[in-house]
């Protein structure tokens, strides 16, 4: 699996000798993100000399995108914006890069292995599918994204789309002032390298050379395109369905055992509101744009809730906990002797304490079954679905059961939308990375 990587500036990565077997010349790579289980990698590669290798078969679905310089694939010469996709097991033509070329290089579902062949017309692997894709993206037009979200101003150039898996690579351009005020998560992973411009959002600012890899179902959002707009190369391992969240809240905590002041024991708990520091880092201008996005969404009649900057509204977890305590107190008595003083604060272990049983289970109900019944009643009363109803049928039994953040195929109208998962603080840049509590 790949870790959650957010707002890392590529300059904070160290250089390695490029792993490009079978080639002649010198090149270095920065490893933006790597899956050590299957070899999938996203890399920034610089060529210090002219580099090339003959025809052959890649061990992974492989992509090359030219940032600067020149790439020659067979007899085709591709400059800035040039793109080649070579499916795993499909023979590819000879490939060359001029000295000083800078590229993005991706490998998916396999390692850097490369088997030389006499000709690109040689037969490929028996289970190989697809064909080589070659594009000069600078010569193609930007297409307006239909249903771009809350506002117009988002454009795309598709580089490659897998008709079977839905995996796709595209260039995305957001005009200055384009915004989306909601948090979103997806059934697939999403990664992007910023080619130019600047975008502000909850995990930090995306400027040229900034990269993220976000596993499936991790919430993110509050995008605002800054001066001049911004352009990314983006990839996803499936169809990018947007599931939106508004006014989010998260509460977590624990008991500090040996690191409290004066060596004492300290009980503590934080929520997304606490972490946000009581306010948002958004400027007044950002907030105006985000509210404009909300108004546009409402004018279209699309489902949404009133916009409250995340981390600054009412902490619904506190309301839910207070409700749960009330339900627990009310549930202690089954008869007319139930005490009406359920609203008073009581000491732990007393007769009025929610954790203290004031009655037996002579009616045949065990502690375990009683707890389960109480839990079910509490979920229903609070308006929460039972946790098991949120699980995807394949959640814990498929080949990727160890990794909730791996992309899974999802079909509208057939599969239940998956709830978001909580990511730990992501890997982030020494110089530019930032995580902000308004977007957990």
Automatic annotation (TrEMBL):
Biased composition (Basic and acidic residues): 335-345, 389-402
Protein's organism: Streptodolium elevatio
Entry protein name: DUF4437 domain-containing protein
Biased composition (Low complexity): 367-381
Gene3D superfamilies (UniProt xref): Jelly Rolls
A Pfam family the protein falls into: DUF4437
SUPFAM superfamilies: RmlC-like cupins (SSF51182)
Start and end residues of each stretch annotated as Disordered: 330-415
């Amino acid at each position: 699996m790949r870790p959650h990587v957010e707002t890392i500036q590529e300059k904070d990565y160290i250089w390695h000798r490029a792993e490009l077997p079978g080639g002649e010349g010198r090149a270095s790579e920065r490893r933006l993100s790597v899956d050590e289980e299957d070899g999938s990698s996203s890399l920034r590669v610089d060529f210090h000399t002219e580099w090339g290798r003959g025809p052959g078969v890649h061990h992974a679905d492989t992509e090359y995108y030219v940032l600067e310089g020149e790439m020659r694939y067979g007899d085709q010469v591709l400059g800035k914006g040039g793109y080649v996709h070579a499916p795993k097991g499909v023979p590819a033509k000879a490939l060359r890069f001029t000295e000083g070329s800078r590229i993005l290089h991706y490998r998916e579902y396999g390692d850097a292995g490369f088997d030389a062949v006499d000709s690109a017309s040689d037969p490929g692997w028996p289970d190989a599918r697809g064909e080589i894709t070659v594009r000069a993206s600078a010569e193609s037009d930007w297409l307006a994204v239909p249903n771009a979200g809350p506002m117009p101003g988002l454009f795309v150039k598709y580089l490659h789309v897998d008709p079977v898996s839905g995996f796709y690579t595209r260039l995305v351009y957001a005009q200055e002032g384009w915004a989306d005020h909601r948090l979103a998560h997806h059934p697939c992973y999403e990664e992007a390298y910023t080619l130019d411009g600047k975008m502000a959002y909850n995990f930090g600012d995306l400027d040229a050379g900034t990269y993220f890899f976000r596993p499936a179902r991790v919430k993110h959002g509050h995008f605002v395109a800054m001066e001049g707009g911004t352009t990314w190369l983006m990839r996803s391992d499936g169809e990018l369905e947007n599931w939106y969240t508004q006014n989010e809240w998260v509460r977590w905590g624990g008991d500090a055992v040996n690191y409290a002041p004066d060596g004492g024991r300290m009980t503590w708990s934080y929520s997304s509101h606490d972490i946000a520091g009581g306010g948002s880092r958004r400027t007044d201008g950002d907030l105006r744009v985000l509210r404009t996005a909300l108004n546009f969404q409402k004018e279209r009649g699309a489902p949404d809730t009133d916009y409250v900057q995340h981390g600054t509204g009412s902490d619904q977890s506190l309301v839910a906990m207070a409700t749960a305590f009330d339900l627990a107190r009310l549930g202690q008595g089954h008869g007319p002797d139930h005490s009406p003083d359920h609203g008073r604060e009581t000491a732990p272990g007393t007769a009025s304490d929610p954790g203290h049983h004031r009655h037996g289970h002579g009616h045949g109900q065990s502690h375990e079954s009683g707890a389960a019944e109480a839990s079910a009643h509490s979920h229903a009363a609070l308006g929460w679905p039972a946790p098991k109803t949120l699980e995807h049928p394949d959640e814990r039994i498929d080949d990727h059961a160890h990794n909730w953040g791996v992309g899974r195929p999802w079909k509208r109208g057939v599969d239940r939308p998956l709830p978001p998962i909580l990511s730990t603080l992501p890997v982030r840049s020494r110089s530019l990375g930032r995580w902000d509590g308004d977007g957990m």
